[in-house]
Amino acid sequence: MRNWKLLSLAVFLGTALAGGTAVRAQQTQLVPAQSQQAENSSSAPVTTVNEAINRIIAREHEEDATIRRYDPIIETYIQEMRPDPEMGSVPVRDDYFLGEADLARGVVDENMLGTDKKSTLQQLNPLSHVVSFFSYGGFDPAGFLQMIYLDPADFDLSHYHFEYIGKDFLGSVRCYVFDLTPLPKSGRGRFRGRIWVEDQDFTIIRFNGGYTPTDGINGYGLHFDSWRLNVQPNLWLPAYVYSQESSVHDLLGNHIRFKAQTRLWGYDLKNANHEETFSQLTIESPDAVQDQNMTPQDRSPVEEEREWQQHAEQNVLDRLQRDGLLSPPSPVDKVLDTVVNNIEVTNNIDIEPEVHCRVLLTSTLESFTIGHTIVISRGLVDVLPDEASLAAVLAQDLADIMITKPSTDQYGFNDTTDVSTIDVLRDFTFRDTPEDITAAGQKAVALLKNSPYKDKLAGAALFLKQLNDEEKALPALIDARIGNGVYLDPSLLTAGPQLKPSNVDQISALPLGARLKMDPWTDQVEMLNAKPVPLYSAREKMPFEITPFYPFLSRYQSTTASATGGPASTAANADPAAQAPASQAPAAAQPR
Question: Does 6 map to a domain?
Answer without folding.
Answer: no
